[in-house]
Design goal:
21% strand, 17 strands, alpha/beta, 6-stranded parallel β-sheet
Length: 498
């Protein structure tokens, strides 16, 4: 579109000034209409005056146009600046959330992101509508209330309904489980953002009384988002030594990267170790160049869903090989699938993941996942079978049925014995048009609604990008946004996505 020489306001001003200048000329002509000599005598000086006034008017209009352009440019720069800058916003009563906010900003900057830090009270509605990424670090006070430096935001922003479909966000919620309203403000904030059509970068992270494991989980997500996944842990885990007993390739000749089933056993002094289905294994990788003797070069931890239950007597993992841009293997997957020899000690710590534990009461369970997400789903099915809970429905997706149907025999056994009431498997490369788990969900809309009406819990495990996002959109379409919000509030929609 062409840019106009002058704005509409400038053209109006030009018309006004032209009328003012021509008016006295018209009066002179009317007065001396019978005396052309007088008109000629007056016309030259009037033309000189008109020329001068016109020149002044032109410069004035040019100044106004430049002023408008400068203002517009500033507005555009502000908008594009907020779109390219990531915001870390905090609500802190004691200063702890503020410190974590600055640590968060530092972690993102290490990944090359431009970051600004603000209190929630400094965030306006315009800010929320202009920023594309905001990381919230918020504590909860009193009876589930917001800290003082979020009171204005709570009253003036959270009370409104605004469109935030451009915003991607994450929430680190700080609290203490000894209090009734644990992390309540963080959950309230996350729910409000979702209702405004904002997109969650990853699920809310709860921190119970400064829990280091939860903070490492938050830091892990920051590394994934920023692309800088090799920064040192804020607080290194207190690892136990487990033994790598078995390692089997699950997808020979797959179109995807190799996936391995690993089995680890605890040390003799740790034989009674306990965990629940849904918990996470934090692994301390070793560098094949440095070896385990170099404590000065401690690598950042890596997180994997546990694929077994304590009754099995061992801890199973499902790990896909990841590669860096230069083709070398990733820190964690390379160590576990390639470099660590069978019989070698593996530094491992089990992290409680209460938000993703198996529902053991008598209610239906819908399990949805893809790829290595089968690890968490497998543990849940084992736990449900152990407690006699057989009303389970599995949606699982991968590339090809002939090469990527992980734990196929176990799944068919669960189907034969009634542990699995329903199974929907989706192999995207086995037909011309890719077919994913969200497509299977949509085809089963009426039955999904019936299961949810009967009190079903929905659990999702696998990749955040693609699968989990598309599954969430499909569930919102099948069940409605309000129903999904209620399921989250009732802890009936649980995810372990990465």
């Amino acid at each position: 579109m062409k840019r106009r020489l002058f704005s509409q306001q400038a053209i109006t001003d030009l018309s006004r000034w032209t009328s003012i200048v021509l008016f006295p000329i018209s009066l002179v002509c009317l007065y001396y209409h019978d005396d052309l000599t007088h008109i000629a005598d007056c016309l030259l000086p009037l033309l000189i005056v008109l020329t001068y006034v016109s020149f002044c008017l032109y410069r004035y209009l040019q100044y106004q146009q430049d002023k408008e352009a400068t203002s517009l440019s500033a507005s555009i720069n502000t908008l594009s600046g907020n779109q390219s800058v990531t915001c870390v916003a905090y609500a802190s009563q004691t200063g702890y959330a503020e410190r974590l906010a600055h640590q968060t900003a530092h972690a993102l900057r290490q990944g090359g992101m431009s970051v600004v830090v603000k209190t929630l009270n400094q965030l306006s509605i315009d800010d929320l509508q202009q920023y594309r990424h905001i990381f919230f670090v918020v504590s909860t006070t009193g009876e589930g209330d917001a800290p003082d430096n979020a009171d204005v935001f709570t009253r003036q922003v959270l009370a409104k309904s605004i469109k935030l479909d451009q915003l991607h966000f994450a929430v680190l919620a700080l609290g203490d489980r000894h209090y009734r309203h644990f992390c309540a403000f963080g959950h309230r904030l996350a729910q409000w953002l979702l209702h405004q059509q904002a997109t969650s970068l990853f699920d809310l992270v709860e921190v119970d009384n400064g829990d280091d494991a939860a903070l490492r989980h938050w830091q892990h997500h920051l590394g994934v988002v920023s692309g800088h996944t090799e920064q040192a842990d804020w607080q290194a885990p207190a690892y136990e030594t487990w033994t790598l007993c078995e390692r089997h390739l699950l997808n020979l000749d797959s179109l995807g990267a190799p996936v391995y089933h690993l089995r680890l056993s605890p040390s003799a002094k740790n034989k009674t170790v306990q965990w629940q289905a849904g918990d996470i294994a934090e692994i301390g990788p070793e560098s094949p160049e440095l070896g385990s003797s170099s404590t000065d070069h401690r690598l950042p931890h890596r997180e994997y869903s546990i694929a077994s239950i304590p009754k099995d007597g061992y801890l199973d993992l499902v790990v896909r090989q990841m590669r860096r841009a230069d083709g070398s293997l990733g820190i964690g997957s390379g160590w576990l699938t390639e470099y660590a020899p069978i019989g070698h000690g593996i530094a491992l710590r089990i992290r409680d993941n209460a938000q993703f534990h198996t529902p053991l009461e008598e209610r239906p369970l819908i399990l949805i996942g893809n790829g290595t997400g089968i690890a968490g789903l497998r543990a849940h099915l084992k736990a449900r079978a152990e407690h006699g809970r057989y009303n389970n429905w599995l949606f699982f997706g991968e590339r090809q049925i002939a090469r990527d149907f992980f734990f196929k025999e176990e799944i068919f056994t669960w189907q034969r014995t009634g542990v699995l009431s329903k199974i929907n498997v989706c192999f995207s490369r086995d037909q011309v048009t890719p077919y994913y788990v969200q497509h299977a969900l949509e085809e089963q809309t009426s039955i999904v609604r019936d299961w949810v009406a009967q009190g079903a819990v929905i659990m999702v495990c696998g990749s955040l990008k693609g699968m989990a996002e598309d599954v969430h959109r499909s569930l919102c379409h099948i069940l409605s946004q309000d129903t999904m919000g209620q399921l989250i509030a009732d802890h009936r929609y649980r995810r372990d996505v990465y």
